Amino acid sequence: MHIFWIPSEQLRIAIMPRPRGGDWLPDDIEFVRRAGIKVVASALTPGEIEELALTEEQNCCAKKGINSMA
User: Fold this and answer.
1) Dihedral sign, CA of 15, 18, 23, 45?
2) What does pTM read for this prediction?
3) Residues of the chain with pLDDT under 50
4) Contact between residue 22 and residue 43 where contact means Cβ atoms under 8 Å apart
5) Is 54 helix (H, G, I), strand (E, B) or coil?
């Protein structure tokens, strides 16, 4: 997974592709946590979340102390 940092004087803002779903999801969320990301906002639709096996993304984020918004 690649995280792309956006230059900002006041905030640390990043964009990234969606995490891999299913069994890989916890590993990708751990990578996000180690990168220092504290809030994740998803732009995926409910159908895409289901199709990509990301239904546990908010739970995985919560377990790692990351706020997640869909």
Assistant:
1) positive
2) 0.88
3) none
4) no
5) coil
